[in-house]
Design brief:
This protein has 274 residues and is α/β, with parallel strands linked by helices. The protein has one domain: 4-Layer Sandwich (Purple Acid Phosphatase, chain A, domain 2), CATH 3.60.21. Helix content is 23%, strand content 23%. The chain has a 7-stranded mixed beta sheet with strand order 4-5-3-2-1-12-13, with helices on one face. A 6-stranded mixed beta sheet has the order 6-7-8-9-11-10, with helices on one face. A hairpin with a 2-residue loop joins strand 6 and strand 7. The longest helix is centred in the N-terminal third of the chain and has 15 residues. It is globular and about 45 Å long. The chain starts with a strand and ends in a 9-residue tail after the last strand.
């Protein structure tokens, strides 16, 4: 199977699907699943933006990409989606409408739940394992959304919730991929990151860990035997429309099983067209 991976996109959801569509055309292969590490930008109501998103949205309307293209049906989004067979699965970031996501999570009993009008974008509940299959191939993905609370602060839904922490620490089944928004505690910067993420890395030793949030460029490190990947945020190299997207903002994983797999940076030299 082929899996595309994106990091923080902050509303640029339609460009994710467009990039996958173009990658399929350029490579004559089909993407089976899209994974995204949070800060997808799920804001169905422009009046409910957090302060940071509101500030950025003044200069970039794509911060409201979910509202414009996926909360209500739009022809341009429909035209892209009908060319693709893959869905997008994400974990919550700290910049999402958590009240909206909370209400949907309560309504749906499954491990993932749809958030868009097309049923093509799914949120993976923190602390639960999602199994994706293509023919005889199978991959298991554990999600941990939101971010860690570093100090005693007032309660906020952007922080990992107690019920999620309980599910994470009670997890007993193994998995192949860890998909998180925050990094593991002390992994990128001392004193930062989530202890819950470090716990599951040490206990379960997944093959890959994809995370976002930190703003790092694309890089690959190791946590024990786990391959830890930070995909670049979905941004252009410059503010002008003729520039290309940042290198490493789209990763492609080929997966057969825990022994047969590979990861590469998508060659998107054609991204200036977007």
């Amino acid at each position: 199977m082929i899996i595309a991976v994106f990091s923080d996109v902050h509303g640029k959801i339609l460009p994710c699907f467009k990039l996958c569509e173009r990658w399929e055309k350029e490579n004559d292969e089909k993407i089976d699943l899209i994974l995204q590490t949070g800060d997808l930008g799920i804001f169905p109501n422009p009046e409910r933006l957090d302060s940071a998103t509101k500030r950025h949205a003044r200069n970039d309307e794509e911060e409201l990409g979910f509202y414009y293209n996926f909360y209500q049906k739009q022809k341009r989004a429909e035209n892209v989606l009908k060319k693709l067979g893959c869905n997008l699965v994400f974990v919550r970031g700290n910049h999402e409408d958590h009240d909206f996501l909370d209400s949907l999570e309560v309504e749906h009993e499954g491990v993932i739940f749809p958030v868009d009008v097309y049923n093509r974008i799914f949120c993976l509940k923190s602390g639960l394992v999602y199994t994706f299959r293509k023919g005889s191939e199978e991959i298991r993905i554990l999600g941990i959304g939101r971010v860690s609370e570093r100090a005693k602060r007032k309660p906020d839904k952007k922080y990992i919730q107690e019920y999620e922490r309980h599910r994470i620490l009670s997890q007993k089944e193994g998995f192949d991929i860890l998909l998180t928004h925050d990094s593991a505690k002390d992994f990128v910067t001392k004193g930062f990151g989530a202890k819950e993420i470090r716990f599951v890395l040490e206990k379960f030793k997944p093959v890959y860990h994809f995370y976002g949030h930190t703003g790092e460029e694309f890089n690959v490190k190791h946590f024990g035997s786990t391959i830890v990947v930070k995909v670049s945020d979905l941004k252009w190299e410059k503010s002008d429309t003729g520039s290309v997207l940042k290198k490493g903002c789209m990763a492609i994983m080929h997966w057969e099983d825990r022994k047969m797999h590979s990861l590469e940076v998508a060659d998107i030299y054609w991204s200036r067209k977007y």
